[in-house]
Amino acid sequence: MIQEENTPDTEKGLTQRQLVHLMYGLFAVGILSAGFFGAAAIAAVVLAYLKRGDMVGTVYAGHVDWIIRTFWWGLLWLVLSAAATVIFIGFATGLVAVVWIIYRLAKGWLAHFAGETPLPGL
Q1: pLDDT per residue as tens digits for the range 45-86
Q2: pLDDT digits (tens, 9 = 90+) for 14-39
Q3: Please, are residues 25 and 48 in contact by the beta-carbon 8 Å criterion?
Q4: 30 membership: H or E segment, kind and range
Q5: Among 22, 93, 106, 120, which is least packed, fewest CB within 10 Å?
Q6: Whether pTM exceeds 0.70
Q7: Best CA proximity match to 26, nearest among 37, 18, 12
Q8: What long-range pairs does 46-50 form, CB within 8 A, spacing at least 24?
Q9: How far apart are CA 71 and CA 22, in angstroms?
């Protein structure tokens, strides 16, 4: 009788590295589609929350936290911008918020490609 070992080589499904790429990709699709595929961004954050515990202690943990923080801060600024449209500055602040989200996605994803954790900051 052959017994299977649960080693990284025999695990089924996506690797942690591939999952982080998937999270960044889903988030980017959600943002760059101007909200048309907004569910993709939500799926990225849900996936990040689901896999957060599995990635503790790895280089990917910082990426998962980065994605989650980017989502919640971005959502806060977009909601505040929507409210500020009443006084006609919401469009400008909304544009700034979207640019900031795209910047954070690019910075995090590039760090992931380099095998590093995104540095704190903007």
Answers
A1: 999 999 999 999 999 999 999 999 999 999 999 999 999 988
A2: 899 999 999 999 999 998 887 778 89
A3: no
A4: helix 16-32
A5: 120
A6: yes
A7: 37
A8: 47/19, 47/22, 47/23, 48/23
A9: 15
